[in-house]
Amino acid sequence: MTQKKLARRVGKIVPFYVMDLLTRAKELESSGRSVIHMEVGEPDFITAPPIIEAGKRALDAGHTGYTPATGIPELRKVIAQHYQDNFDITVDPRRVIVTPGSSGALQLIIGVLVDPGQEVLMTDPGYPCNKNFVEVFSGVPVPLHVGPDTGYQLSAELIERNWGANTCAVLVASPSNPTGTLLPRAEMERIYEVVNSKGGILIVDEIYQELVYGGDKFTALDIGDDIFVINSFSKYFGMTGWRLGWLVAPESYVENIDCLAQNIFLSCSAPAQYAALQAFSPQCIEIMEERRQAFRERRDFLLPALTEIGFDIAVKPEGAFYLYADCSRLTGDSFKFCYDLLEAEGVAITPGKDFGSNKPEQHIRFAYTTSIEKMEEAVNRLKRFIG
Ligand SMILES: Cc1ncc(COP(=O)(O)O)c(C=O)c1O
After folding, report:
1. How many CB atoms lie within 10 A of CB 64?
2. Residues 6+ apart with CB under 8 A from 137
3. I need a surface site. Which of 151, 289, 295, 345 has the fewest CB within 10 A?
4. Could you tell me which residues come within 8 angstroms of residue 280 by beta carbon, excluding any fewer than 6 positions away?
5. Splitting the chain (387 residues) into consecutive groups of 10 residues, what average pLDDT does each group show?
6. Closest ligand 1 atom, CA of 41?
């Protein structure tokens, strides 16, 4: 049956191309083929046992109802304490708002900040949903092409140059998806100054903040208390499927965000929130730190292995679990390369097309969310494929 009506904004929202690739990978697997998955941005470790146990206890204790829209007070307090313990920053727990993943946080922030037609500056390549969140609220995403010269990050100079009459905010992520690169503190400070001088708002996505292997670890909360900061239990804490994240908002926005959260989400999952209370316990942090170490070892294996077979990685990624490789020495069409590789050798990787329109045909994202043994096998298969 034809659709009677479809909002125009839906037409602007493109699906993840990698999902088709994933479907094909699953088909190949169900026909008995071996597939090595390096396409998905989610840890291969399951949630740490103490968190799972806490989740089960929460269910047994009857924590199955709605919670306050901003999250259970205990969790907001624990998150605020995390900033005190790890960054020596005092954050009022009232400024911490628990959200359904950092995806929920992004929606709330864009929802309270962006009027129809207003622009948000962001990177290209970048996390694909960012522009769609802006579209959903009838704003205008402005992806700015970035490359190795700025570590695939925005710079104060780029922001200054691209600020227009309708620009209202800038969204950066450090470490970034898909490049794993960091924004150095000094540049973040310069960006903050430029954005402030324009009367705009800085939004910093710190979802991979705890997955940093080198460089200066800091939170943007230390730079200004009028910055919106986003984080999540998905990646470092290995809780993607629990759908839990948070944001730290400037004090004066808390009420508006609470109101929007009440209306859009009503509340986050109650058992997930009680489970997450365990996430910062010393026992859990020990597990997460072992995993962080494992990710670092994987990066240290994969980066030289890919370079050796003809990929170029211009900036060493110091965080997250991605390598964004230039494949132009091997192919002029990364999309076809990824599909042909999957069919021929059963290795699933993500073509640049998913991350924007900045030379996507020259780039491929490798997620090192699988074991070194499997990655060794993937590299052998890649070698055979390349010939
Ligand atoms: C940069 C970035 N921000 C936000 C998200 C959303 O994650 P979640 O909603 O699971 O917290 C992701 C997921 O891959 C991401 O890479």
Report:
1. 10
2. 110, 111, 114, 116
3. 289
4. 78, 79, 81, 82, 85
5. 88 85 93 95 94 98 98 98 97 98 98 98 97 95 98 98 98 98 97 98 98 92 97 97 98 98 97 98 97 97 97 96 98 96 97 96 97 98 96
6. 14
- Domains, the chain, ranges and CATH? 8-46+283-386 (3.90.1150.10), 63-281 (3.40.640.10)
**How many A from CA of 102 to the centre of ligand 1?**
6
Cβ–ligand 1 contact at 173 (below 6 Å): yes
CA distances from 302 to 3, 9, 25, 290 (A): 47, 39, 21, 18
> Is the CB of 101 within 6 Å of ligand 1?
yes
Starting at the edge strand found earlier in the chain, the sheet holding 322-326 runs: 322-326, 363-367, 350-351
Maximum pairwise Cα distance, the chain: 59
